[in-house]
Amino acid sequence: MLNFIKNFRNDEDGAVTVDFVVLTAAIVLMGLAVGTAISGAAQNLGGAIADNVNAQNVAPPTN
């Protein structure tokens, strides 16, 4: 029983998987944070572009 406990304590087979899960979660959370941070500015810029395009006066072509 003592050998089983020592082997279990020294076993590192699942450590890499845990590391990648933590890194993936951190990357996803950072992506969500960046997306949330720039979404308001992107909407404002899109609205400004739409307003500018709608304000343009385009004369119909003459034949």
Structure report:
The protein has 63 residues and is mainly α. Helices cover 79% and strands 0% of the residues. The longest helix is centred in the middle third of the chain and has 41 residues, at 15-55.
Describe what is shown at a glance.
With 63 residues, this protein is mainly alpha-helical. It contains two helices and no strands. The protein is 79% helix and 0% strand.
Order of helices and strands: HH
Give the DSSP E fraction (strand runs of 2 or more residues): under 5%
Tally the helices.
2
> pLDDT average, as an integer?
88
- Give the terminus-to-terminus CA distance: 97 Å
- Share of residues in helices: over 70%
Largest sheet: none
State Rg.
28 Å
The structure class reads mainly alpha
The 3D shape can be described as: rod-shaped
| Number of strand elements | 0
* Unreliable stretches covering 5 or more consecutive residues: none
What is the quaternary state of this protein? single chain
Task: Note the main attributes of this structure.
single chain; 63 residues; mainly alpha; 2 helices
